[in-house]
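STRUCTURE:
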């Protein structure tokens, strides 16, 4: 558990440093236009396809929610704000952790898995497909067979997919809970 709080603390420190005013001695120095390191590191860019304003549709193509995904802190992290059609809201912060070589995600919602739910996730080291698959940060208790995973992957035609799956047999078989197809939103009239 300390590891997850350390990671969240590091994000908070990075945000604080990024928003701090320039020191007096820095004001006269010319700034270079070099790209931030995270913007050019492929590890940090595995979810770059997801950045945008999205209409989320269910498997029938019906509107389900909207999601606004942004690269933040010089492209070192991604935030995603979910707004559902029945008052459900959620937000996550995702980033690559160079120390562990894993992606980390904290998701907070007023609905999932229960009202005011919080989920801490890490990337699944066994997943080699496009995008990132997230699994719970902490391993389940010994003997526990329930598992969950969320995969965020690119689709053709500038679309993306969030696939939510559950397993009741320790991950031998997976049951699709929900496919959330993301379609780029057009500007409101």
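SEQUENCE:
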């Amino acid at each position: 558990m300390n590891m997850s709080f350390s990671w969240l603390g590091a994000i908070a420190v990075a945000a604080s440093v990024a928003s701090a005013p320039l020191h007096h001695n820095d004001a006269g120095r010319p700034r270079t236009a070099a790209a931030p390191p995270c913007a050019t590191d492929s590890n940090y860019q595995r979810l770059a396809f997801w950045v945008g304003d999205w209409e989320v549709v269910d498997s029938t193509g019906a509107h389900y929610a909207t999601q606004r995904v942004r690269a933040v802190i010089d492209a070192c992290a991604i935030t995603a704000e979910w707004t559902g059609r029945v008052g459900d809201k959620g937000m996550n912060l995702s980033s690559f952790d160079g120390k562990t070589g894993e992606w980390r995600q904290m998701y907070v919602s007023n609905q999932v898995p229960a009202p005011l739910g919080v989920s801490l996730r890490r990337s699944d080291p066994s997943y080699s497909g496009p995008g990132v698959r997230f699994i719970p940060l902490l391993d389940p208790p010994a003997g526990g067979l329930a598992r969950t995973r969320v995969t965020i992957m690119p689709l053709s035609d500038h679309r993306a997919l969030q696939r939510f799956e559950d397993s009741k047999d320790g991950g031998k078989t997976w049951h699709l809970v929900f496919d959330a197809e993301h379609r780029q939103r057009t500007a409101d009239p």
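REMARK: The chain has one domain: 2-14+48-184.
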